[in-house]
């Protein structure tokens, strides 16, 4: 998702080696969530391991090993709030969504719908960032954004 910027990379920063690696996604049912990500989004399971009563796995998108979801499954005391409206979801603090860049937003949404995925925001244009966006949710109320450069 390149943006034109006049700000050059800060190679002298003590944090210059920082780069995105993975996002941890906490769910109440590991096996169901892993199956959902693999069947609905074509994720691949790269590695699985236990941690006490929890099950964990690294999952990667169909052709990208540079950003992973670390799936953490086990009983939850505080499940995520359900959102049917993107605007209302912006009233919560903390992590909001995972965004995936796609080449063709319309085709991606059609495929998600054919797989029974819940779409909560149909495509809309954000001119300030030159992107068309849409949002969907998983069964555990985690939000996902799709972004297509226009």
Brief sketch in words of this structure:
The chain has 150 residues and is an alpha/beta fold. It folds into two domains: 20-75, 2,3-Dihydroxybiphenyl 1,2-Dioxygenase, domain 1, CATH 3.10.180; 85-150, 2,3-Dihydroxybiphenyl 1,2-Dioxygenase, domain 1. It is built from three helices and eight strands; from the N terminus they run βαβββαβαβββ.
Topology:
Elements (H helix, E strand, L loop, with lengths): L21 E6 L2 H12 L2 E8 L2 E7 L7 E6 L12 H4 L7 E5 L3 H10 L3 E9 L4 E7 L5 E7 L1
Parallel strand pairs: 1-4, 5-8
Antiparallel strand pairs: 2-3, 3-4, 6-7, 7-8
The class by helix and strand makeup works out as alpha/beta
Average per-residue pLDDT, rounded, comes to 92
Order of helices and strands: EHEEEHEHEEE
Please tally the β strands and state the result. Answer: 8
Number of domains: 2
Describe the structure.
This protein starts with 21 loop residues before the first strand and ends with a strand. It is globular, with a radius of gyration of 17 Å. The relative contact order is 0.18. The protein is α/β, with parallel strands linked by helices and 150 residues long. The longest helix has 12 residues, at 30-41. A 4-stranded mixed sheet has the order 1-4-3-2, with helices on one face. The chain is built from 3 helices and 8 strands. It has 2 domains: 20-75, 2,3-Dihydroxybiphenyl 1,2-Dioxygenase, domain 1 (Roll); 85-150, 2,3-Dihydroxybiphenyl 1,2-Dioxygenase, domain 1. A hairpin with a 5-residue loop joins strand 7 and strand 8 (143-149). Helices cover 17% and strands 37% of the residues.
């Amino acid at each position: 998702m390149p943006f034109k910027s006049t700000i050059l990379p800060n190679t002298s920063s003590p944090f210059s080696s920082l780069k995105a690696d993975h996002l941890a996604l906490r769910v109440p049912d590991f096996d169901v969530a892993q199956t959902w990500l693999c069947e609905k989004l074509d994720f691949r399971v790269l590695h699985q391991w236990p941690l006490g009563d929890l099950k964990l796995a690294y999952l990667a998108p169909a052709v990208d090993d540079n950003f992973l979801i670390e799936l953490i499954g086990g009983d939850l005391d505080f499940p995520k709030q359900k959102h049917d409206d993107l605007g209302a979801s912006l009233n919560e603090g903390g992590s909001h969504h995972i965004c995936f860049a796609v080449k063709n937003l319309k085709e991606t949404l059609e495929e998600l719908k054919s797989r029974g995925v819940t779409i909560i925001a149909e495509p809309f244009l954000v001119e300030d960032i030159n992107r068309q966006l849409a949002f969907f949710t998983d069964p555990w109320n985690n939000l996902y954004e799709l972004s297509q450069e226009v």
